[in-house]
Amino acid sequence: MLEHGQKWEVHEYPLARSNEEPPVDNNPGAAPLGVVFAKDRMVFVSEGSSGRVALIDAETGDPRSAVDLNRNGFHDSFSADLVLDASRNILYVADPPNSRVVVIDSRLGAIDARPRGILASVALSGPPFAMALSPDRKKLYVTEPESVSVIDASEPAAAKVEAAIHKASGPSGIVAAVGHVYVSNAADDSITVIDSSTNRVETQIAIRIPGLEQLRGVAPAGLAYDEKTGWLLAAEAGINAVGVIDTRSATVLGHIPAGWSPTSVVVDRSTVYVVNRWGQGRGPSAVIGSGSVRIVGGDASDGSVSIYPLPSAAELPGLTEFVMRAAGLAASPRNERSVPSEIRHVVVIEKTSRAFDEILGDVRRAANGPVVGAPALARYGKQGSINGGRERLSLHDVNVTPNQHAIADRWALSDNFYADSAASWNNVGDHLTRNGISFLHFDASKLSGNSSDTERAGGVILEIKKQYVETGADLPQFLHVYLPNDHAGKLRPRDGYPYEESFLVDNDNALGRLLEFLSGTRWWTGMAVFVTDDSVPRGVDHIDAHRTMLLCAGPWTKRNYVSHINSNVAGLWKTVFAILKVPPMSLLDASAADLKDCFASSADTSPYTAIPVDKRVYDPDMKAPAQ
Q1: 3-class secondary structure, 177
Q2: Cα 497 versus chain centre, distance
């Protein structure tokens, strides 16, 4: 704890990173990076894709040494979670790409504080995620996608796996107490309780939301155990809370409010420390309790740390009620908005990775009031600047995204929409199939990585013409189209991409042509079209790094309207499901704010005409689309 008068201080230490990412199949990017205190105010920090563990002087920030895991025949290592056995000077490092745990002698020399090297490499059945050391330090528990490996660590240099315990699938948090090990299962909202004396699963503790027991989405992640109360604390990333579980009765006592998407939790002397993945500024990935010191390990994402006293049992009901209301899980007294029953077809067009202000920050007003944007940040707006560098002429006052601006001016946009909880298309497709909804997913992978979005849109148009327009068959109820080129890439002048902005102009051209085609079909009178980004945006936004664009178009959409309702990708899917009359897929979309306010009570069925793009920046005729 901080003494009276002391203040929290934040230190940032730059770390070396490899330019090459580890293999995608092993998904090391999902693994938590590790931070642990050593002796003499030294800190071990995972460097991730470099495959190294850095030793840093916490007082000065100076690097003292580093251990490279890419030794003894191993390659493409990714240093992830760390566990330190300080009493024996042993550091355990998770290496997901190589499905192993590396055992390191962490003793510090008197002068240069260099670790003495790798003692052992323990092979696992799958990539490790999180680790926990038993209180007697004789066992190391490691979570893997389908199991928990129990490593005999009584002799670290000869460490070996002694058991594998099946658990629910998915990345997991883990904590070891006397007699029991607790594992979080994000996939099915549960805690696995393991008897450490027998290495057997003793029970499963389900975390359910009253009234929504059939849905999942609490997403328990990091765990902490409080010996005084016997409570297990679970960071609940899906509902922005910390769950409180009585381990003696194996029941959920309640939930404590946290920040935005909490992923890690520590309880130390009745004080709770919670790492939230998103929030303000550059953010943390782990929080460590070590005596009187709290260390937060940072990564490249924005985030925050919540700190508060562990509440009493009597306080939990009130805190739980607040969590339920804040997460949208409590019954709302407001009247539910409806969607026009005439809408029978929904189209979602997903782009990639652009912040709201970069494209629509120059949209100042709509018919119902001001739009919250920053025109100075709209580098891909109506008056964009095209940087030619030293290769070609720079251009000024170029309308980079004329179609997206025309859609925003004619129909509806949101200035309070965030890409923070995207559901994978496979999950959405499975959900629609289970509920008997016909759909068509246009797979961008059928075209090469060098294909233009204009080509992709042309392929969509051609397929709809052949399968539905010319045959007279009815269009599926749901269409999903992916146009990824607005993330930009390596300049390819011969293919029509002489500038970075060329990719965004191509993307805008494809969107305009696709909407023009759809508005000329017989299904247009009953269609709603949504345009958004599918991942956390790149770029700058004056409100939040996760704010991105959401456009709503179609005959039943309000004219020149801006929605200020705080919503996200889950809210988009909630709106889609409401139109298609299917139940929620998970707690995320069940609790999200929908976008029904974008719809009107009457229709304007006039078609859309695509706005020509500036051919100085991108010439769509250089790679003619299929028609």
Answers
A1: strand
A2: 30
Q: What is the pLDDT of residues 489-540, one digit of tens each?
A: 788 888 888 999 999 999 999 999 999 999 999 999 999 999 998 777 778 8
Strand partners, 152: 139, 160
C-alpha–C-alpha distance, residues 189 and 206, integer Å: 6
By percentage, how much of the chain surpasses pLDDT 90? 67
Coil vs helix vs strand at 505:
helix
For residue 258, give every residue at least 6 positions away whose Cβ sits within 8 Å of its Cβ, in sequence order, or none: 235, 236, 240, 241, 242, 274, 276, 306
442 pLDDT band, cuts 50/70/90, is confident
| Residue type present at position 550 | L
Q: What span, in angstroms and rounded, lies between the C-alpha atoms of 35 and 53?
A: 9
Written as one letter, the residue type at 607 is P
Sheet (strand 42-46) strand order: 35-37, 42-46, 52-57, 63-68
Which of 67, 100, 60, 77 lies closest to 23 in space, CA to CA?
77
Contact residues for 91 (Cβ-Cβ < 8 A; gap 6+): 36, 44, 53, 82, 83, 84, 85, 103, 104, 105, 106, 115
Could you give the 3-state DSSP secondary structure of residue 487? helix
- Mean pLDDT across 42-56: 89
pLDDT digits (tens, 9 = 90+) for 568-588: 999 999 999 999 999 999 999
The CA distance from 115 to 89, in Å, is 10
Beta bridge partners of 83: 92
Tokens 């859609």, located at residue = 407
Place of tokens 């009359």: 581
Q: How far apart are alpha carbons 571 and 239 in whole angstroms?
A: 14
Q: Are 28 and 96 in contact (CB under 8 A)?
A: yes
At 150, phi and psi to the nearest 5? -105, 115
Give phi and psi for 448, each to the nearest 5.
-70, 165
**Euclidean distance between CA atoms 380 and 351, whole angstroms:** 14
Q: Is the pLDDT of residue 281 over 90?
A: no
Q: How far apart are CA 452 and CA 495, in angstroms?
A: 9
| The pair of three-digit structure tokens given for residue 99, joined into one six-digit string | 């499905």
Question: Mutual orientation of helices 501-518 and 453-464 as an angle, nearest 10°?
Answer: 20
Nearest to 166 by CA among 140, 130, 192, 186: 192
- Look up residue 46 and give its two tokens: 């995972």
CA distance 611 to 408: 13
In angstroms, the CA 50 to CA 28 distance is: 12
Residue 58 burial (C-beta neighbours within 10 Å; 0-12, 13-18, 19+):
middle
Token pair recorded at residue 85: 């056995």
The structure tokens listed for 543 are 């409100």
Burial code of 92-107, b = ≥16 C-beta within 10 A, e = fewer?
bbbbbbbbbbbbbbbe
Element (H, E) at 365: strand 365-366
Residue 307 tokens, joined: 């700190």
According to DSSP, the β-strands at 561-563 and 412-414 are parallel
